[in-house]
């Protein structure tokens, strides 16, 4: 399978290179972020998106801040890097990976004794975050492929693929690994209204790897389950708390339907997506702009003046989840949070 390089650090220009995911599948373009402000715009516009990729973006964002802050006084320099780092972390509130990636690299900046050392240590740690993410996705794929029977049809929602990570993917990583091990797997990709990450991105990357994929409207999922056309559901996650899995809006609906049809509902996520600190009720669900729902292809689909709600994520109670596939193996409720908190390397 051809590697997709979603997010990279370019040493020559000290900048972050991203695949612009807003342009797919029509155009494959990369964006170069030379400043923290440009990176924040890229995160806000979903040019880079998906929880693990946001973790890597946050990590490289702090390395970028460490290089772009122009201040000779070391104490003042640290304050300015921290301000930029927090601005990155607060750009999108739901995926915990973003603030996790930011904090991991910021902690290295704090431990530096000079600006030169902050440059060096921040990039070293950001590269480590990116490499670990790639390794985690391959490990998730290896563990999770055991759950996929030969000849299965797997329903997925949103894009939890290579484009949402450093490479390979979480939910789609499991599918890639199952296919690589010789299994025949078909994917049903829910289109994922309103921004169509399933139709645009999941279908694009699976087609590129010659994995059989069919796109359906989100509202067709229950119908296909009832017809016996789905064997299991595999999705990614933006944050996993003690009581719930937060993922793209519509995930909860699929979990309820899977339970109603006695189908396994699997979540695939690296340990960086777990939040040992907060409970589900404390998590901010990002609400995005009205126009994402009220316009389609540039045309208004909702009468002017009619309010719209556009929550980007929902929470699926853990008791609807059959298993969570991580880089450390397959976890089931009740989760061992002491182990998760240690392994996640919160600093
Ligand atoms: O708004 P997005 O596109 O960033 O939402 C992404 C998702 O909800 C993904 O399913 C999740 O981040 C898992 S990615 C491996």
* Count of DSSP-assigned helices: 11
Low-confidence stretches: none
Assembly status: single chain
First-last Cα distance? 35 Å
Strand order of the largest sheet: 6-5-4-7-10-14-15
- What is the mean predicted local confidence, pLDDT? 97
Q: Would you list the SSEs in sequence order as H and E? A: EEEHHHHHEHEHEHEEEHEHEEEEEH
Radius of gyration: 20 Å
Query: Based on CA inertia axes, which overall geometry fits?
Result: globular
Tally the beta strands. Answer: 15
Largest sheet: 7 strands, mixed
Bound ligands, each once: 5-S-methyl-1-O-phosphono-5-thio-D-ribulose
- Portion of residues in helices? 25-40%
Strand content: 15-25%
Structural class: alpha/beta
Please tell me about this protein's structure:
This protein has helices at 36-44, 51-68, 74-89, 96-110, 115-145, 171-180, 197-208, 221-226, 251-260, 291-294, 337-343, and strands at residues 7-10, 15-19, 30-33, 152-156, 185-190, 212-216, 232-235, 239-240, 244-248, 265-268, 295-296, 299-300, 313-317, 323-326, 329-331. It is globular, with a radius of gyration of 20 Å. The longest helix has 31 residues, at 115-145. Helix 6 (171-180) links the parallel strand 4 and strand 5 (185-190). The chain is α/β, with parallel strands linked by helices. Helix 2 (51-68) runs parallel beside helix 4. It contains 11 helices and 15 strands. It has a 7-stranded mixed beta sheet. The chain has a 3-stranded antiparallel beta sheet with strand order 1-2-3, with helices on one face. 5-S-methyl-1-O-phosphono-5-thio-D-ribulose binds next to helix 2 and strand 9. 5-S-methyl-1-O-phosphono-5-thio-D-ribulose is lined by residues 46, 49-52, 95, 158, 160, 164-165, 170, 197, 236-238, 247-248, 312.
